[in-house]
Specification:
This protein has 303 residues and is mainly α. It folds into 2 domains: 95 residues, Farnesyl Diphosphate Synthase (Orthogonal Bundle), CATH 1.10.600; 167 residues, Farnesyl Diphosphate Synthase (Orthogonal Bundle), CATH 1.10.600.10. Helix content is 65%, strand content 1%. The chain is built from 15 helices and 2 strands. Helix 2 packs across helix 6 and helix 4 packs antiparallel against helix 8. The longest helix has 23 residues. The protein is globular and about 60 Å long. The protein starts with a helix and ends with a helix. The model has no long low-confidence stretch (mean pLDDT 92).
Length: 303
């Protein structure tokens, strides 16, 4: 499903040999523990799914998440516009991360992961570009613009995780990019109200206009707003098609635990779409998947 334009943007990445990855040195134990703490606190669904990974890959995945979370928070948690970092500042941070010189406690662990799992600097800079698009008012004219934004803030994360999990074929990379887009589309549907109050509307403007949807009215009146339910049904259906296409890449992951983790993550995240449906397409609440249902969805994914 990924467009040819974005497929061409994926950097050339290697195929991994069979066998377990190299374990990090004991001197980085505390740095990896710091990455684990960040993930456990801020990424409950991923932390839940990561238990299927071997220890070395799990720790590496936590380091990647901690880095991505830090970049995102630099934008979202800035107290005012004057405090927002520039793209150049964040790119300089990337260089510090790659050298292990950034002051974040997990930085040495992340630098080791970048070196030993061959994460190119381009992916880090693409993430920065995507996050910087949230520095101001967000309006996306159409789905290609939304696809590109999702690639920058989520597909590049999927590509980093692919390097951690290991791949048996380069065909895994476009599917990993699709998984990132699928999860980002789910985030957008989950966070409509929160994003609106930040002056961010990620839904394609042309599709909203064609459906006669004013998001402010929907967030005031709920699913009774004329046209909203069929509009959101169409968004959910498209989102599920992205998950289905991305799932074709799971057998191409080198590590079976990585494939299980990705499958569980996809099923749990797609469970947010189920929650939206169960709550009658009401965007005024932030829907989530409770732990008992996460366990059920994980079992279904593992089958």
């Amino acid at each position: 499903m990924i467009s040819d334009r974005l497929r061409a943007r994926i950097p050339v990445l290697p195929v991994d040999p069979p066998g377990p990855p190299k374990a990090p040195p004991d001197s980085l134990r505390e740095s990896f523990a710091a990455a684990r703490a960040v993930t456990r606190t801020h990424a409950k669904s991923f932390f839940f799914a990561s238990r299927f990974l071997p220890r070395a890959r799990r720790d590496a995945a936590y380091a990647v998440y901690a880095y991505c979370r830090t970049v995102d928070d630099r934008i979202d948690e800035a107290p005012d516009a004057a405090s927002l970092p520039s793209r150049a500042e964040l790119q300089e941070d990337n260089r510090l991360f790659l050298r292990g010189e950034h002051p974040a406690p997990f930085a040495p662990a992340f630098a080791w992961v970048c070196q030993h799992h061959q994460l190119p600097a381009l992916l880090l800079d693409e993430l920065v570009e995507g996050c910087c698009r949230d520095r101001e008012t967000v309006r996306l004219p159409d789905f290609p613009a939304l696809e590109e934004y999702s690639y920058l803030v989520a597909s590049v994360v999927g590509l980093m995780m692919c390097r951690v999990f290991g791949v048996s074929s380069a065909d895994a990379y476009p599917r990993a990019a699709e998984m990132g887009i699928a999860m980002q589309l789910t985030n957008i549907l989950r966070d409509l109200r929160e994003d609106f109050h930040r002056d961010r509307i990620y839904l394609p403007a042309d599709e909203l206009h064609e459906a006669g949807i004013n998001l402010a009215t929907v967030l005031r009146d709920g699913p009774s707003t004329p046209g909203w339910v069929p509009f959101l049904r169409a968004q959910i259906e498209r989102n599920r098609q992205w998950y289905a296409s991305a799932a074709q890449g799971l057998p191409l992951l080198r590590d079976r635990g990585g494939a299980r983790t990705a499958a569980v993550m996809a099923r749990v995240y797609a469970g947010i779409l189920d929650a939206l449906e169960r709550h009658h397409y009401d965007p005024r609440s932030r829907h989530f998947v409770p732990l008992p249902r996460k366990c059920l969805l994980a079992l279904r994914a593992l089958r």
